[in-house]
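The following record pairs a protein chain with its ligand, zinc ion.
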Amino acid sequence: MPYEIIIGRNGQQPFTIPGTCEAVSHQHALFTVDDNGNWFIEDIKGPHGNGTFVQDVNGEFRRIQKKMIDRDSIIRLGCGGHNSFTFFANRIIAPDNFSYEFDLLHHRLRALQQEQAALEAINEKKAKKIKTIRAASGVITLGLLAYAAVMKSPAGFAPAAISGAVTALLPAPDQKHLKALAEKKKAILVCPKCFSPISETAVNNRVCPLCKAKG
Ligand SMILES: [Zn+2]
């Protein structure tokens, strides 16, 4: 038997959307569960409404018309800012308990920390390799200079040319990926209830210092 809930400021969802969230319509979105147990969220207002958004794997909110979701999906009604409302789909079945969301935050944070540590280790290895090869190229350069001095030929080009060639051949440490990871971490580190940014400590303590949501 399919199941339907209208979500909005006057919706049937089991949690309140405050009146201050003016970007949210009285009846804004439709949540459905089909016969196979699949969850869907659908925008009711259409292209002229303020939009229903679902967060993608990179932490970006994408406007949707109808989309299959799961318990972990983060949904935003309205285009962002204080007059929009954001919630974990899980709240539809567990409105006041955030233990599932804090577990999820822990899990995602740990995965990102591991990815970051692995990347830092690779970068460190690369930096070491560059240092070693630079030192070796310095020895070769000295040898060439000594040889040039004996043969009385100019060898002034050698140090710069060798060091330049060696550096060009080596892969540079990956700062871009590290920066992207830091951004992703920032997008993930939000309270599962009020969606304010929270610290790693708050995630570990499983309580939001602002709205006191805990789990
Ligand atoms: Zn909070």
